[in-house]
Design a protein that fits this description.
The chain has 451 residues and is mainly alpha-helical. Among the domains are: 223 residues, no CATH class; 75 residues, no CATH class. It is built from 25 helices and no strands. α14 packs parallel to α16, α22 packs across α24 and α24 crosses α25. The radius of gyration is 25 Å and the shape is globular. 47% of the residues are buried. It comes from Haloferula chungangensis. This is HEAT repeat domain-containing protein.
Amino acid sequence: MKQGISVGIAALLVGSAGGFLVGKAASSSGGETADASGSSVSLVRESKRSGSGDERLSRADSVEGALREPSQLARLQSLMDLYAGMDAAQLEEAAKNLDSLPMGDRIMASMLLFSQWGEIDPQGALAFTKTMGFGGMFAKPTVLRSWASVDPVNAAKYFSENPNDFADMGGRGGPGGDNGAGVIAREWAKLDPQAALDWAQGLDGRDKSSALVSVLGEMAAKDPAEAASVASGLEGDDRNRAYSEIAEKWAQSDYASAEAWISTLTGEDKQDALASAIGVLAKSDPVGASAKISSMAEGGEKERAIRDVGSSWAREDPAAAAAWVASQESGSDGMRNVMATWAGQDATAALSFIESQPQGEIRDSATQAYLWTDRSMAPSQSITLAETITDDRDRSRAVGMTASRWMREDEAAAKAYVQQSTAISDEVKERILSGDAGRGGGDRGRGGRGR
């Protein structure tokens, strides 16, 4: 668990530090952005390096030494210090040794290494990612994001001239599932939103769509009304996505104003924007947010809002959250999140709630989440609970999962139970007994909803 948290912190530290320092450089130079010669890039890099040297004492002189620090945050700091002192050639040598690290350490080190390399020698870093096989697909977005955070003009120029280099990035590039154009636009907008917007509007197809939404999302953090005005000129899905992101940013600073703006929208634009705003409100006032949902039309966005509200509410009062979600016509997906939280806090109370529910999608969702989360129940009881799931495919997956756990404790008893079960088909039994239950799936064609 701690390892996962540390990787997230690494991403936040790198992104936050880059954005803050770039912003200070732009501010001190009158808002100047990088031009093709990279003149203002040096200002950004000098800003980042001021305070280094004597003022910054590296905690280790090698990656191995940094990773031996006694806490995750100390390891992160040591790695950041270590990579900040390397030139491009040294970073390349360090990158060649990443494969020798344990996976958790490799992820953490890769994020920091390629973030640094992407600032001082982005084309060299991108060239290296081509030698990494599958792993290069994950390092490339980090390089591009880092490059764009200090030199968006040249990052954009390279992107336009080498589109095939970024074709495999898909939506993995950045916040909100940005592709390569979205990554550049989002970082550029932090420096010069108008220049970023002009660039985005000159693109085509999916690149244009992703870039525009990214720019407007960044604009909304400072001036949501202006961002909304610009977004109103977009069409279709582009406008819909932009409105949704603007609503989220606006709600973070002024929910009442965001809500007033959303009330002027119509159709899917309104539903998407309202769901995003409610998700923000739910973090501070889940009860108040739950009341807002009553005005939403049934559909995917209402389901999203219910999930967000239920998840936030469950951290404070899982029983109340579960009762509310269960009362919603579209609450089955939201119940999974609530039950996962509740089962971790009070498995006994969570199970009692499940047993009080009538058969149907809500109970099925709660049961699946409970079985995935709770480890205190005896396997023989877990598998009996799994068999109460009404959907054929969901039941088969849950029985297979619980049977696999049981086999690790008492293989003979688990196999005997599976063989006599009447809740799953012979095909599913064979898959479980052969140890292949982890593939999921189940009785297709027997009335399951499918996924």
